[in-house]
Design goal:
The chain is an alpha/beta fold. It folds into 2 domains: 80 residues, Fe-S cluster assembly (FSCA) (GMP Synthetase, Chain A, domain 3, 2-Layer Sandwich), CATH 3.30.300; 246 residues, Rossmann fold (3-Layer(aba) Sandwich), CATH 3.40.50. The protein has 12 helices and 15 strands. Strands 8-9-5-10-4-11-12-15 form an 8-stranded mixed sheet, sandwiched between helices. A hairpin with a 6-residue loop joins strand 13 and strand 14. Helix 1 crosses helix 2 and helix 4 crosses helix 12. The longest helix has 19 residues. The radius of gyration is 21 Å and the shape is elongated. Bound molecules: adenosine-5'-triphosphate and magnesium ion. The site of adenosine-5'-triphosphate (ATP) has 20 residues, from helix 4 and helix 10.
């Protein structure tokens, strides 16, 4: 069935779902658009604050009704009450810790998120190569693409096709270069843009993280979208994140944006493990000479000013961009090259900064 037809068919099926107070879900004003991808269906039901429990059975009935129409697609139905997290800014900007209901993800010992203040600083590229460097050090590692608005892990790791879904509705993650990997990007048609509403994004994130058969992992790296939006808040609120690594470029080192991100992370009582400076210096491809085109030591000083460890610098090199575009990260193609050496050194620093927690 074509995707718009399927969305309409699901909506029709939701007419059989009764909601508290009378009426059916298809005609309910709080029903969101129904997003259909080749392997998943997602929609949200917005309810008045305090009505979440009353709507629980309707949510389950909606899940079943949608499943009968959607075949093998995974159904993601979220119930949202009160203010969506996207509008939760003021709760952390007043400087008070935010109460959270954090729970561990079974099988995963550590969760490390990679974030930044600004977009395009190389978070995803760094996240992939750090994950591979940790793996090269003997750890079992997974990577979760939490950038639901602009997923890039499928391209960076050359993931093909969609993740399979087991009979019990759990995703089997992709495997690439030994890493377990999950991304909403693998479930979208090429160049399809998905407009998530805040609550749906947080629900999708929860399901990607908690309804994936990761197996036993020493570390799950989470690649965040830029900035301090709903996804960051949702992750920090719902999961026990052991630390966040901030990626910055030298140009970004006015650090206004990074400071905002750091401030938000602190509100959730999650440690910032340190700052990585990406695209820091240039290595001439012909001579191998290093040029500190932006001066040197700026990031280290900035990290000191921010009261956090400096984890290391990654050069600006064509091979990183080319390898990333081709789905062949430098950690794989040139494990002894200078780029891989930089990523390995940083991964060691990250491990050294992790608070000693045994789980
Ligand atoms: N050290 C580097 N040297 C050269 N190019 C790099 C380096 N790091 C990242 N890039 C390139 O910079 C671009 C942005 O990188 P990337 O997508 O990883 O950034 P991002 O911070 O995740 O972006 P977004 O905010 O959109 O998620 C990509 O084309 C990538 O190949
Ligand atoms: Mg990215």
């Amino acid at each position: 069935m074509a995707e718009p037809d399927l969305a309409a068919a699901i909506k029709a099926a939701l007419a059989a779902v009764e909601i508290p107070g009378g009426g059916d879900l298809a005609g309910y004003a709080g029903l969101s658009d129904i997003i259909v991808t080749p392997s998943a269906v997602a929609f949200a039901i917005a309810v008045a604050p305090g009505m979440e429990a009353a709507f629980g059975p309707a949510r389950e009935a909606a899940q079943r009704a949608a499943q009968t129409v959607a075949g093998t697609r995974k159904i993601m139905v979220s119930l949202t009450g009160g203010k969506p997290p996207a509008k939760a800014g003021p709760t952390f900007s007043h400087g008070k810790p935010v109460p959270t209901g954090k729970t561990p993800v079974p099988g995963i010992k550590r969760i490390i998120a990679v974030g930044s203040g600004k977009g395009g600083v190389g978070k995803s590229t760094t996240a992939v190569n750090i994950a591979l460097a940790l793996q090269a050090g003997g750890l079992k590692v997974g990577i979760l693409d939490a950038d639901l608005y602009g997923p890039s892990i499928p391209k960076l790791l050359g993931l093909e096709g969609q993740p399979s879904i087991r009979d019990d509705g759990i995703f089997s993650p992709h495997e690439a270069f030994g890493l377990k990997a999950m991304s909403i990007g693998s479930m979208l048609v090429k160049d399809q843009a998905v407009v998530w509403r805040g609550p749906m994004a947080t629900s999708a994130l929860r399901q990607l993280m908690r309804e994936t058969a990761w197996g036993e992992l020493d570390v799950l790296i989470v690649d965040l979208p830029p900035g301090t939006g709903d996804i960051q808040i949702s992750l920090l609120q719902q999961a026990i994140v052991d630390g966040v690594v901030i990626v910055s470029t030298p140009q970004d080192l006015a650090l206004i944006d990074a400071k905002k991100a750091i401030d938000m992370i602190a509100r959730f009582s999650v440690p910032v493990l340190g700052l990585i400076e990406n695209m820091s210096y240039f290595i001439a491809p012909d001579t191998g000479t290093r040029y500190d085109i932006f001066g040197s030591g700026g990031a280290e000083q900035a990290a000191r000013d921010l009261g956090m460890p400096f984890l290391g610098a990654i050069p600006l090199v064509m091979s990183i961009r080319e390898g990333s575009d081709a789905g062949t990260p430098p950690m794989v193609t040139a494990p002894d090259g200078p780029e891989a050496t930089a990523y390995r050194a940083i991964s060691q620093q990250i491990l050294a900064q992790l608070p000693a927690v045994s789980r």
